[in-house]
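[#protein-structures] MJ: dropping Pyridoxamine 5'-phosphate oxidase here for a structure pass
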Amino acid sequence: MRDNAAVSIRELLSDLRVFDRPLPRFAPEEAPPHPDSLFASWLRQAVRDGVTEPHAMSLSTVDAGGLPDTRIVLLREIDDRGWQFSTDAESAKGRQAADRPAAALGFYWREQGRQVRVRGTLSRLDPETSRADFLSKSPGSRAASLAGRQSAVLTDPAHLIQALADADEVIERDPRTIAGSHTVYAVVPVSVEFWQGDSRRRHVRLRYRKERDTWHKELLWP
Ligand SMILES: Cc1cc2nc3c(=O)[nH]c(=O)nc-3n(C[C@H](O)[C@H](O)[C@H](O)COP(=O)(O)O)c2cc1C
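AK: finished. structure tokens for Pyridoxamine 5'-phosphate oxidase:
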């Protein structure tokens, strides 16, 4: 059964093509000195070209036992404090961040064959930033955060429905209600890599590496 499943997956994948479409040009020699500027320019281009959810990124963390974990979150902001996302500090990723304050981020914009990888340290931003981030979300999203015990075991789906209904009511009564564990985290990069796929496999990789507060750029073999 297991072997049959393996064969059928291989067959299913064998005809799929990657990067077999027109892709944007990337000239690494024209890249700016700071990776945040290049990311902003790539992100603007992604939004302009209609890339689906270009702000969705994988966030990888490591648990206390050293086992990596990964999931998708939304990029909320990039500024001097780092590349930011928000989540429940009591979730699995929140606990992992507390145990091991390091993370990697990954973006894949398939319409453009582009990948961006970030590695760095992870920290919680101040409570005021987290409150402002929470209040900037839609009422539905605020209710979901308020209702949730993210990553806890759900013993009965009815409990979720009830908690969401209760949270909707709370938000409606007092739209300024804040979920106390809602937290903005920032990844402060030590390296950021920009990867442009190419139909002839001449993929371009440009890595920015931070050394003593200065960014260095280097090309990598694909
Ligand atoms: C497109 C997309 C965006 C998401 N954005 C977030 C987010 O910004 N914050 C968040 O906590 N979870 C987000 N999630 C849910 C996470 O992937 C994950 O299921 C949840 O945070 C629990 O992860 P954990 O158990 O590792 O803590 C998103 C999921 C998807 C598919």
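MJ: nice. Residues 157-173 form the longest helix (17 residues).
AK: one more thing. The chain has a mean pLDDT of 95.
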